[in-house]
Amino acid sequence: MREQSVRSRVQGAMVLVVLAYAATLLLAPLVAIFNEALADGVGEVWTAITAPDALLALRLTFILAILASAIDVVLGVITAWVLVRHQFPGKRLVNALVDLPFVVSPVIVGFVIIVLFGRQGWLKDLPIQIAFSWPGMLLVTVFVSLPFVVREVMPVLASLTVEQEEAAYTLGASRWLVFRRIIFPGIRHGIIYGLVLTLARSLGEFGAAAVAGGGVQRITETATIYIFRSIHDRNDVGAYSMAILLGLISVLVLWLMNWLRGRSIVKGVSNVHHPG
To answer: Are the CB atoms for 6 and 15 separated by under 8 Å?
Structure first.
């Protein structure tokens, strides 16, 4: 579909409504946060971001986000493969359960960790502590962000034909070689896009991580939990400064998503015009 310039008042009004909507949801909160954070100068913002508590919170946030993204890529590709390439009883149920993290409150997810792995939990005798520790926070982060990779990879995988794979098998190629040389290049953009979405979701996780980890200062406190605690401690500069940093990271992730999407579209158009 070709883009068209505004040619009528109705179209112009629709554009203004969209711009006002975007400004209300994005620009206004950002301006308010920047205004509050910079009220005492840039030096105070830097001091707040480099405080020991803030650095530890950022460190845990990135560790959880990177580990969860790596795990979600592996589990997401496996889940997408099974749902696309195999038929088995209960497939529709499993396919529906993939979207469960979208409809279940993250707070409930964190509470389940406590019920299962807490002091009175069903699995309380495990050799490693899960509840009120970073492994529990990692579990809930993986759970709430898993659908992104699955839903991005499934349609791409379903669009691939199996003729090249079968030809490779007849020539003696192993399953791993076929996946690495034939399947992976076809689903690569879906994996990358799902990875970016997973990373963004993991960086912003609050409810599940706060309940599963307990929000213990300097131990199980992520950046979002740090903002919540700073507000209650009347550390407004610390809260706003951390919010700015997470906001800038979100903008970077959003730019990366759009760049990947544009690159995929350009590559797809190029392949259509030059199939050889």
So the answer is: yes
Q: What does the pLDDT read at residue 272?
A: 43
Q: Quote the pLDDT of residue 165.
A: 85
Domain boundaries along the sequence of the chain: 52-273
CB-CB contact of 217 with 17 (8 Å): no
Output the pLDDT for position 42. Answer: 84
CA distances from 174 to 24, 182, 210 (A): 54, 12, 45
Amino acid 46 reads W
Name which of 101, 121, 103, 99 is nearest 112 in CA terms: 121
Q: Is the dihedral of CA 106, 109, 114, 115 positive or negative?
A: positive
Tokens of 116: 């299962």
C-alpha–C-alpha distance, residues 68 and 202, integer Å: 7
Q: What is the mean pLDDT of each run of 10 residues along the chain (276 residues)?
A: 67 85 79 80 88 95 95 96 93 94 93 90 85 94 95 93 85 87 89 90 93 92 95 90 88 79 61 48
Phi-psi group of 86: left, alpha or beta (phi > 0 → left; psi -120 to 50 → alpha; rest → beta): beta
Would the CA dihedral through 139, 144, 145, 147 be positive or negative? Answer: positive
At the fourth CATH level, the homologous superfamily of domain 52-273 is MetI-like (1.10.3720.10)
